[in-house]
Amino acid sequence: MKVEIWSDIVCPFCYIGKRKFENALAEFSGKDTVQIEWRSFQLDPTMENIPGKSIHAYLAERKGCSIDEAKQMNDAMSNMAKDVGLNYNFDIAIINNTLNAHRLLHFAKSKGMQSAMKERLFHAYYTEGQDVSNIDTLTELAIELGMEGAEVKTVLLSDAFAKEVELDQYYAQQVGARGVPFFVFNNKYAISGAQPVDVFKEVLDKVWTEENPLIKGDESGAVCAPDGTCE
Predict the structure, then answer these.
(1) Within-domain flag for 144
(2) Nearest CA to 168 among 45, 22, 46?
(3) Is residue 229 pLDDT above 70, yes or no?
(4) Which residue segment(s) compose the domain that 203 sits in?
(5) What angle, 0 to 180 degrees and rounded to 10, lies between the N-to-C axes of helices 135-144 and 149-157?
(6) SS3 for 151-194, per residue?
(7) Which end of the chain is least crowded, N or C, by CB within 10 Å?
(8) 139 CB-contact burial (10 Å; exposed 0-12 / middle 13-18 / buried 19+)
(9) Across residues 160-174, what is the average pLDDT?
(10) Residues ≥6 apart with Cβ < 8 Å to 71
(11) How far apart, in Å, are the Cα atoms of 227 and each of 221, 223, 230, 231?
(12) Among residues 62, 56, 60, 18, which one has the least CA distance to residue 43?
């Protein structure tokens, strides 16, 4: 079973959705057969890192509300994250453009480490307050996972995998993803948003049943065996 997941590092629902999906997957009997591919989706490709500007102030501008109201929204999001065991620290979150992070994820995919890199990037942004647009920071995060630092930095200093990020954005439009997270199962079923665990479990079971149909019949049915005997 293939599951493609479109998400952005700076989308708070994306990390929550990731954890909910993983919780559903942990209870799924066919979890060892599931192949996960992370697809790129930039919520704001034009976003720039503005030194000293808080994520609360940024949200207030986007929503047209006060900074206090924006902080209340972020606090509510932090509480939602706690429900699935995540620690969001918006007070130290750094506004940034996620293109380099998405390029790194494509590189990590080529090394068979995409899921681990995705988790590390989410944790770095939401919990540790790291700048996940900074090439040196991204290189260090990749080194932590066992990648070769010089190779990672060479990739990030180039425009490598930029086209792959662009193509993922295009594919998102084709499958109807207007927001993230967006999960596609076997290119057939889709889940939009950080849905409850039971919703993910239901779709996993449905796809599994379709892939592994049961053949039913009564015990008296006549059969022939490979050795030529028929009963």
Answers:
(1) yes
(2) 45
(3) no
(4) 2-49+94-211
(5) 150
(6) HHHHHHHCCCCHHHHHHHHHHHHHCCCCCCCEEEECCCEEEECC
(7) C
(8) buried
(9) 97
(10) 56, 90
(11) 18, 12, 9, 12
(12) 62
CATH code of 130's domain: 3.40.30.10
Model confidence pLDDT, tens digit, residues 23-64: 999 999 999 999 999 999 999 999 988 878 899 999 999 999
pLDDT tops 90 at residue 207: yes
- Whether 229 is covered by a domain: the verdict is no
pLDDT of residue 221: 58
CB 9 within 8 A of CB 132: yes
The confidence score (pLDDT) of residue 49 equals 83
Tell me phi and psi for residue 230, to 5 degrees.
Answer: -125, 140
Number of domains in the chain: 1
| CB-CB contact of 135 with 100 (8 Å) | yes
Neighbours of 175 (CB within 10 A): 13
List of residues 6+ apart from 176 with CB closer than 8 A: 190
**For residues 48 and 45, what is the distance between their CA atoms, to the nearest angstrom?**
9
How far, in Å, CA of 69 to CA of 180, rounded?
Answer: 23
Task: Give a yes or no: residue 134 inside a domain.
Answer: yes
- Which amino acid is located at 27 in the chain? E
- Number of separate helices (H) and strands (E) present in the chain: 9, 4
H-state helical runs in 42-92: 55-63, 67-82
Domain membership of residue 201 (yes or no) is yes
